[in-house]
């Protein structure tokens, strides 16, 4: 079953016809919210609100291990994760969707592996290409049929938050090769890889990253872009589930 993880601005999918909610409790604790099972255009899908429903968990407070373990337990076979990001390079203008193909992790202090029990054999997963190729291609094909502004590829820089970055930090991320910046891509992506769940990310650029515009970044500005952008994402995901 295809699963969606909704980030900021996507706590609920309005077009999802809910058929069951799974209030799961994993060996890592409870996920951010019950896993919702529903139908999109007649296709059975799963949905999880990354920050809880209502949105209460900050990026560093999310129990990513419980979220991924719960999705797997509920029957997920692939995950499309949606997140709001800041745009760094011209390839990531505000309002556009980016389908990243690379990632750099700047987060710290998060539980970022399932393999930390002494009873389990240590596994170093290959993470050269953090996003699943086939899932990315399928999303790309879907985006190509839409009217949305989008960009294929790009490097996602995962920062700790919850504050936004300094202009110097963004300049550093840009030198490192990052095109977009967000706070939740890691450890979510690597945990999916450890569970062998194909995972891809759809990032909505909601503001120019720090130092990339002449004005202060405000929540009002971000919320306005999220409001219009996530409606397009919901339609796209419904079409994706059907096709
Ligand atoms: N930085 C980090 N995370 C974000 C941003 C940003 O500018 N915008 C939305 N999520």
TrEMBL record:
Q: Which reaction does it catalyse?
A: S-methyl-5'-thioinosine + phosphate = 5-(methylsulfanyl)-alpha-D-ribose 1-phosphate + hypoxanthine
A GO MF annotation of the entry reads: S-methyl-5-thioadenosine phosphorylase activity
Q: In which pathway does it act?
A: Purine metabolism; purine nucleoside salvage
Mention any Pfam family matching this sequence. Answer: PNP_UDP_1
Could you tell me the superkingdom of the organism this chain comes from?
A: Bacteria
- Give the similarity note: Belongs to the PNP/MTAP phosphorylase family. MTAP subfamily.
- Quote the subunit structure annotation: Homotrimer.
Record protein name field: Probable S-methyl-5'-thioinosine phosphorylase
């Amino acid at each position: 079953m295809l699963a969606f993880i909704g980030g900021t601005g996507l706590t609920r999918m309005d077009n999802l016809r809910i058929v069951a909610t799974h209030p799961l409790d994993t060996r890592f604790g409870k996920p951010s919210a019950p896993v919702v099972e529903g139908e999109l255009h007649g296709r059975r899908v799963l949905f999880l609100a990354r920050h809880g429903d209502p949105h209460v968990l900050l990026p560093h407070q999310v129990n990513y291990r419980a979220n991924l373990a719960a999705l797997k337990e509920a029957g997920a076979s692939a995950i499309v994760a949606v997140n709001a990001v800041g745009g760094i390079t011209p390839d990531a203008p505000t309002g556009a969707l980016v389908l990243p193909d690379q990632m750099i992790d700047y987060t710290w202090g998060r539980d970022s592996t399932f393999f930390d029990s002494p009873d389990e054999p240590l596994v170093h997963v290959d993470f050269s290409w953090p996003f699943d190729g086939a899932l990315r291609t399928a999303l790309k094909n879907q985006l190509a049929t839409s009217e949305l502004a989008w960009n294929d590829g790009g490097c996602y820089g995962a920062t700790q938050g919850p504050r936004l970055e300094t202009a110097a930090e963004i300049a550093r991320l840009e030198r490192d090769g990052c095109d977009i910046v967000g706070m939740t891509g890691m450890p979510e992506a690597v945990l999916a890889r450890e569970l062998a769940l194909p995972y891809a990310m759809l990032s909505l650029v909601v503001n120019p990253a720090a130092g990339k515009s002449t004005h202060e970044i405000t929540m009002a500005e971000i919320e306005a872009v999220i409001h219009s952008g996530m409606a397009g994402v919901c339609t796209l995901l419904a079409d994706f589930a059907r096709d």
